[in-house]
Amino acid sequence: MTVEIRPMRVDDLSRVAELSAQLGYPVSRNHLEDRFSRLVDAGHSLLVAQSEGRVIGWIHVHLQLLLESEPHAEIGALVVEASARRHGAGRVLVLEAERWSRQHGIERLRVRSNITRHEAHLFYPSLGFTTTKTQHNYELRLA
Fold first, then answer.
1. 73 contacts 110 by C-beta, under 8 angstroms
2. What is the pLDDT of residues 46-62, one digit of tens each?
3. What is this structure's pTM?
4. What mean pLDDT, rounded, does the chain reach?
5. 60 Cβ contact partners less than 8 Å away, ≥ 6 residues apart
6. Among 11, 105, 106, 116, who pairs with 101 as Cys (CB 3.0-4.6 Å)?
7. Residue by residue, what is the 3-state secondary structure of the chain?
8. What pLDDT score was predicted for residue 12?
9. How confident is the model at residue 43 (pLDDT cuts 50, 70, 90)?
10. Rounded to an integer, what distance in angstroms lies between the CA atom of residue 29 and that of residue 103?
11. Per-residue confidence at 72, pLDDT binned at 50, 70, 90?
């Protein structure tokens, strides 16, 4: 499978929504459009992987600037269509995230993965990622 990586465009958002739903994060195109417009020029990289002209995956990587630790980049999301997994698209997307991070002077790339994502827990170490901690995530609803 030949995979090409390019910047995400507004006309990709319907497909991005479909892929997000495959991962268990359903979102409307309208919500994506609003989020996309705020992220595209704000220290975020939004890329798609396509094969034979069809979007088969996407990645969102962004800078994390925190007072208490060195700046790092974080993969906010990585989704590859179920039928296209294990053909290199995820690997190429992560390599692009690494390149983008280095281009921004960042020396560390992080990713968080839900404990239920068993395939991801094999995938990321195969790319050289190491587990640095286990944590709980808490949320407070404000509305």
1. yes
2. 999 999 999 999 999 99
3. 0.92
4. 93
5. 39, 44, 45, 46, 75, 76, 77, 78
6. 106
7. CCCEEEECCHHHHHHHHHHHHHCCCCCCHHHHHHHHHHHCCCCEEEEEEEECCEEEEEEEEEEECCCCCCCEEEEEEEEECHHHCCCCHHHHHHHHHHHHHHHCCCCCEEECCCCCCHHHHHHHHHCCCCCCCCCCCCCCCCC
8. 97
9. confident
10. 30
11. very high
| Separation between Cα atoms, residue 119 and residue 42, nearest integer Å | 31
CATH (residue range 4-126): 3.40.630.30
Q: Are 40 and 75 in contact (CB under 8 A)?
A: no
What are the residue ranges spanned by the domains of the chain?
4-126
Query: Would the pLDDT of 23 be above 90?
Result: no
Instruction: Assign residue 83 a region (left: φ > 0; alpha: ψ between -120 and 50; beta: otherwise).
Output: alpha
Identity at 84, one-letter amino acid code: A
Rg (C-alpha) for the chain, rounded Å, is: 15
Question: Residue 100 has what pLDDT?
Answer: 96
- Residue 54 near residue 90, CB atoms below 8 Å: no
